[in-house]
Amino acid sequence: MDVDPGSGMKDVFAPDESTPIEVVGAGPAGLAAAITLARGGRRVVVHEAQREVGHRFRRDLQGLENWSSARDILDQMREAGLSTGFDAMPCTHGVGFDAWDRAYPLKSSRPLCYLVERGPRPGSLDRALLDQALALGVEVRFGSRKQGLSGPGILASGPRMADAIAVGYHFDSPMPDGFRVILDESLAPGGYAYLLTVGGRGTVKSCMFRDFGRQRLYVERTVERFRRLVGLDMLSPRFHGGVGNFFVPATGYHDGHPVVGEQAGFQDAFGGFGMRYAMLSGVMAAESLMDGTDYDASWQGEMKRPMQTAHVNRAIYNHLGNRGYRWLLRGQAWSGDTRAFFGWLYRSARVRRLIVPWMQGRRA
Ligand SMILES: Cc1cc2nc3c(=O)[nH]c(=O)nc-3n(C[C@H](O)[C@H](O)[C@H](O)COP(=O)(O)OP(=O)(O)OC[C@H]3O[C@@H](n4cnc5c(N)ncnc54)[C@H](O)[C@@H]3O)c2cc1C
Question: What spacing in Å lies between the alpha carbon of 226 and ligand 1's midpoint?
Answer without folding.
Answer: 26
